[in-house]
Amino acid sequence: MSSSKFKGQFRSAVGSLMEQFVQEKRTCGYRYDEPARLLACFDRFLSDEALMECKLPRSISHKWLAKRPHESKGTHDHRICAVRQFALFMCRLGYAADVPDRWPMARGASSFSPRILTHAEIQRLLQAADQLTPTARSPMRHLIMPEVLRLLYGCGLRISEVLHLRVADVDLERGILTVRDGKFGKDRLIPPALPLVQRLRTYAQVMGDRPSDAYFFPSPSDGPLSHPAIYWLYRELLLRSGIPHAGRGKGPRLHDLRHNFAVHALLRWCQEGANLDVKLPVLATYLGHRSLAGTQCYLHLIAELFPEITARTNAAFGDVIPRRSGS
Fold it and tell me: What range(s) does the Tyr recombinase domain occupy (predicted)?
């Protein structure tokens, strides 16, 4: 999934305002690439609807915002959010614009829980990746996929962070990865475990000498690998591993490997008797979270999945692992 800056053009009656809105967001420090792409889709729709005036009528915007068949709630929310922010921008400038309701985006307590694989399932998944063979369309998949999965699970990286690593970002002498321009616009350093560093060294030797700005995991065209390509190969590996999948968006998702890294790290620390109040900030920094709030959700998963660990840890250190409300 490419994170290159969106450079499309807006052509509808409100297109110039969309360009101004996107520029304002970027001036404030937001990358705003995916919302800009969504607005470009909305812009094309407005052109198809023959919008002639610089306004945003409710009848037209709600037609585009209607939930589509098989569209996930997250994707629908992102479309609503992009249009809502743009409509508020138009209103601020004095233009007539219907502002979509906020309620469709309200998640409340999410019912989705990431699929936490057992260590045996993780081992089967990695073994299946190690047994991949090259194909005409994916001549390097047997080299790339085993290391991509190990970085997701072994370092808790986001898939976009893995796919956009450059050769210069992977310091194999010191064993340090540099994740640049992460989710919240921050760089961070990641030290993988030594066995993983050794695997990456072997991979780099097989790939040969490459420019420092080349993608560490290149596509056949030498650009970044796409998220869909990795996702569907991941689904194939789940099938080979005998790990059931509940359908797209229901898991185990590719992103769940990041959650598995966090939960398994916390579980290991609990079993070692470590103080989680001390360890949690370390995990938050490693994962690239802005605050502890994003990391504490994993404590709830520990409480649900391993109640005996929770009881032992809380007995030693107090109520470190919080209970779910109502439990």
Answer: 112-311
Contact yes or no for 283/277 (Cβ under 8 A) = no
Order of strands across the sheet with 170-171? Answer: 170-171, 176-179, 188-190
Per-chain mean pLDDT for the chain:
84
SS3 104: helix
Apex 8 CA angle, 41 and 188, nearest 5: 100
Structure tokens that stand for 93 in this block:
């400038």
Q: What is the three-class DSSP state of 1?
A: coil
What sign results for the dihedral spanned by CA atoms 266, 276, 255, 195? negative
**107: helix, strand or coil:** coil
Q: Can you tell me the distance from the alpha carbon of 215 to that of 233, in angstroms, rounded to the nearest whole number?
A: 19
Tell me 99's DSSP state: P
Alpha carbon 197 to its chain's center: 23
In whole angstroms, how large is the CA radius of gyration of the chain?
22
Distance CA 251, CA 111 (A): 13
Note if the pTM is more than 0.85: no
Count of other CB atoms within 10 angstroms of residue 50? 9
Residue 326 has pLDDT above 70, yes or no: no
| Model confidence band, residue 33 (pLDDT cutoffs 50, 70, 90) | confident
Domain 15-105 has CATH 1.10.150: yes
Taking the C-alpha atoms of residue 61 and residue 56, their distance in angstroms, rounded to an integer, is 7
119-241 fold: hpI Integrase; Chain A (1.10.443)
Contact 238, 245 (CB under 8 A): yes
Which residues form the catalytic set?
A: 158, 183, 255, 258, 289, 298
Please identify which residue in the block is written with the tokens 């998220």: 227
H-state helical runs in 165-306: 194-207, 227-241, 256-272, 276-287, 293-305
Give the residue extent of every domain in the chain: 15-105, 119-241, 256-317
